[in-house]
Amino acid sequence: MSESTTHMKASPPTLRLDIVVYEEDGQYVAHCVQLDLVHCSAESMDAVYDELREICCEHVLYAFENDKLDSLFRPANPALFLKMLRARNEGMINVCFDANIKDGPISSGIEFQYLVA
Prior knowledge:
Shape: globular
Order of helices and strands: EEEHHEE
Mean pLDDT: 76
CATH topology: Double Stranded RNA Binding Domain
CATH architecture: 2-Layer Sandwich
Number of domains: 1
Oligomer: single chain
Strand content: 25-35%
Strand order of the largest sheet: 3-2-1-5-4
Largest sheet: 5 strands, mixed
Low-confidence stretches: 95-103
Number of strands: 5
Number of helices: 2
CATH class: Alpha Beta
């Protein structure tokens, strides 16, 4: 009995970031939990999320292109993690896959999780 060996190509890395969106003082706030990046807008929840998603992509690209990976991740305040967990428990999740970083250091892109808190 012969055995065939299948060589599996390693999948390119994907970075997963969680963005919690909530309303505070009449504005919408989007906060990336892993990078501790925050963006505010009075426009809409979707708009503030989209804008912070672009900021996160630029932040990640800058870190890779300038060898600053040691400063890429800064976890947010623990209170934000609690908001994120509550949003997950309440089913307020919309997972988005972003391809803005194709052919870059994270060639499969960044997976964003949008949580409404």
